[in-house]
Model the fold of this input.
Amino acid sequence: MGKKMTLLMFSGDYDKALAAFIMANAAREMDVEVTMFFAFWGLCILRSPEHMTTENKTNFEKMFGMMTPKGPEDLPLSKMNFSGIGKQMLLEMMDDDEAPHLTAFVEGARKKGVKFYGCKLSMEVMGLKKEELIPELEIETAHTFIQEALESDIQLFI
Amino acid sequence: MGKKMTLLMFSGDYDKALAAFIMANAAREMDVEVTMFFAFWGLCILRSPEHMTTENKTNFEKMFGMMTPKGPEDLPLSKMNFSGIGKQMLLEMMDDDEAPHLTAFVEGARKKGVKFYGCKLSMEVMGLKKEELIPELEIETAHTFIQEALESDIQLFI
Amino acid sequence: MGKKMTLLMFSGDYDKALAAFIMANAAREMDVEVTMFFAFWGLCILRSPEHMTTENKTNFEKMFGMMTPKGPEDLPLSKMNFSGIGKQMLLEMMDDDEAPHLTAFVEGARKKGVKFYGCKLSMEVMGLKKEELIPELEIETAHTFIQEALESDIQLFI
Done:
């Protein structure tokens, strides 16, 4: 039977998301099945500025939507972000080494057939609508995560 | 043989603890054996304002006890806490969706038979006494965590 | 066949690194094979002030090298660091309990035969040279991490 990896994407940090998507791409290249389950801040990675909506949202949900990152390139660093200056510096250093940005790794993961799950409860609490996130995202509960993780050879909380 | 999950509860963040206890409850509902091993800041999740003591503590231990969160509802968010305003906002959003607070998930885990271990070294260093934490907590070393994790189908560092 | 643990050392925090190295030492004492894969901030744990260099580095790499922690004892806490005061307090509390500092656990792990891998991409982006880190570090890609993790009984993202 094939090998499998399940990543619980909790943190919405640029650097941690980069590490996770680099792993997801590498695992797919090695023919490992990959599931990424997005919860809480992790859901911000899958937002896109073009698909934001404020329809049918409470005031708190609207405010929350405005205050949180709007897609991969809008995420802060987990450390030394310095209001974005630290992150800008890291991006320049990545460019110097011709390392792709997060968006490219997210696109790679989508093309390589990574499975994307969004946590139902997190989406309800944060007021995120399915149409605001990537189209292949399936909405599932924590039970689905546990089931996937039980069947996996690697599970990581990121 | 039954399936098993072991969570290393390191971070004392409200949102991360919520994710962990939601998983613990879901896993128990699926008949998965669950062990939660609390170390460092994670121990603050199991404190209770009524059982705090300053007896036989050094001055540093007393100060540390005062500065750290005093139970589940006193924990900060890992992000956007804004001195508690961000957390209050999240709690209001959870109430709007009738999502239970952390305390309810901790109680659920206790009722469902999750095993609770406390890291001996962390408790000694932080000066936390057994009677300050939940009564079913067993005090164990890192070796016990490794043994439990080796026997588990899922292990996560949270 | 023997048991195996693989730790992905992403965070460069003193408390998280301490937890990881305590686990690595405990696992080796239980005859578990241990691999630690250092990426991003985690690489700072393996720096040493005596082996720093600025040769063949871009200006950003030099700045980055100056702003990031220079070895185990220079790491901040993940919480309550308070510009180092919180960390100093934790160290005093550790001394009161005769708990060794991080450096001792790193040395223990090296003596006990833990395998050390450094993430190639992270080192290139951050401009870290092999000779700035511990000599037994082998430089590997994310594919090596996935391979090691697939063969492990425990995998944790720290």
Remarks:
- Chain C has one domain: 4-48+64-157.
